Amino acid sequence: MDALSRDCDEREDHRFQIAQRVLGEWFGDVRAFGDVRAFGDVRALNTAIGDTVISVNRNRPGMSGSLVFRVTTSSGDTLALKGYSIGTTVDRVTEIHSVMQTARNNGCDLVAELVPRRTRSQSQTHPTICVFGDRCWELTRWVEGHPFNQFDDSKAIRDAVSKGATAIARFHDALRGLGGSGPFGACQPAPCIAARIHRIKEIDGDIASLFGANLNQIANPDLRRSLGKCVERLRAKWRNASGSLARSLDIQAKIPQPCSYVMRDIHHQHIFFASNPQNGLLLPVVSGIIDFDAVRVDSPATDLARWTSSFLGNGSSVQHLWDAALAGYRLQSSLNVQQEALFRGLIPATAWISLANWAIWLVLQRRSFPVEDLAIAERIEQCVRIVDSIG
């Protein structure tokens, strides 16, 4: 085993030890687990916390830097132990939990149930949060199912977009009035518009440096190839696209938009589907929504745009996906004319900004992400396909 592999194994072992200690906090025994080196030996963990946990497995990491473990208990429960990304504060997690709990209290059971701690320390002021090391932790019921993955079937794509939009509308309806002054508080401009106008101006200032950068600094050949496509698209179309998008968003910024708490970062990996037997067929239904790290007060249109755009680039037309998303949303709730216009306008703006962000983050800012280079390359390839599909 080389030094890099040993270092990775040691970091992974350390993460499991932290997860053990956090579970000890949750289930009522705070004895140290530092002596447990082999996490596969769950007997030590069982002895410490009363034979409650029988297995703990780490989920594949995502882009955010959070840690997620699947926890199975002797009573048959399956739980998700999540460590928020480093730097996420207790106040921020408290806000997220308030949104999650309000959604559930108002009938949106697609949001995972938070599991309160059994220990007394910190439990009265923050009953669903454990602070350990440099992270805030939460424990929720496990959301069964999996993200949509039939991207070679255009009918299935439209069906998933529609059902996911209905689920998003359920979430929005459950939060009406939270964070706003009425059923939906009016924001002018909606934060999503102001943020995109600001980001386009920032990208305009970086684009010349990006075009002059040497991509050979990117060691991984697959990632370098994907970034090459990304920069080519930006070189060919960014100037015209950014001007058109800025003008469109400036118009939207003058229109008061109803706002409340929304997810803001909801794409095809964040809504889970499970099979439901109907008339002898196994039909996919939405089983849950995950990852509320980005919740803020904003326009509901931003969620619908993020969700819909994540299905682009797979052969389905923008118009067909727009229609599917709006039809699904209307089964549960509604958008006014201004919101529908914003929904349609946010899709190209989000697509072009996402493409430029990846190039700037990796080439100019040299950022690193807690996933393999191939996963980043695949994400960039998807961004390229999306901007190609919208023209």
Automatic annotation (TrEMBL):
InterPro entries: Aminoglycoside_PTrfase, Kinase-like_dom_sf. Pfam families: APH. It comes from the Bacteria. Residues 66-308 form the Aminoglycoside phosphotransferase domain. GO terms for molecular function: transferase activity. Keywords: Transferase. This is Phosphotransferase enzyme family protein.
